[in-house]
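A student in our group prepared the protein record below, which I am reviewing. What it holds is a sequence and that sequence's fold in C-alpha cell form. My question to you is simply how this chain folds and whether the C-alpha cells agree. Do not assume that whoever made the record got everything right. I have pasted the whole thing underneath without changing anything:
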Amino acid sequence: MVVSFQMMGERGSCEASALSSQGAKSVSAATLFAPPPVGLRLAVIKGMIPAQGRTCGSCTFCCKVLGIGALEKPAGRWCAHCKPGRGCTIYEKRPGECADFACQWLVDPRFPEALRPDKVKVMVSGDQGGRIIAHCDPDNPAAWRSPAVFHTLKSVAANTWASAVTVLAVAGRRTWLIAPAAEYDLGVVPEGGQVEMEKFPDGTARVGQRGAS
C-alpha cells in the first residue's frame, strides 16, 4: 500500500491518502511521507491526560522547539511568553493549540522517565499523519543520538516497522529517518517536499527525497 502525505503549508493541516500498490519482497511498497512543517503542531490529541505522577513541572522545552501558529512563533525559538524553566506567562489565556498539546513523555507511562524533554533536549510526539517525531533543539541537532533517546527511537522503529508508522528525528527542517537497522540523513527537506521510502524485512529502507508537489 502506498500512503501519500501532503503538507498543506506551515500552519495548515496534514492530509493522507492511501492507494493500492504492488510491493516486491518488501515490508511495504514505496511510501511517500513529508516531514512536519515548521511552525505547525500536529500532535494534538484532545482529552489526553498526563500519566500518573507526571507533570510538565519546570520543563518548557516544547515552547522552543515547536512553532505556535496563533502567536506566529517559529519553531526553534523561545516563545516570547515563556520563562524557560518556569512556565508560561499567559498560561490562562494561552492559545488552544498550546492547551491541547501533550508530548509523549507526559501522557505515556511506558515512555522512560529519564527522557523528560528538558533533560535530554529532545521531545517526542506523534502526529495525525502516522509519524513519531523526535523534535530536537536546532542548537543541538544531534541530541536524538544520545544513547537513551537513540535506544528508544530504535525500539519504536522496530516495533512499528511492519505498519505505516514512520519514525523521524527533526531539527528545524533537517530530517532523519530512523529504521531498525539504519538511520538515513535526508538533509533539509523543503516545505511541501516528500520522501519516498520502501521498507525491507531486514530493517533497512530505500529512501529518496522528492521535490515539493
Summary: The chain has one domain: 2-210. Helices lie at 62-65, 96-100, 104-107, 117-120, 147-160. Residues 1-25, 37-46 have pLDDT under 50 and may be disordered.
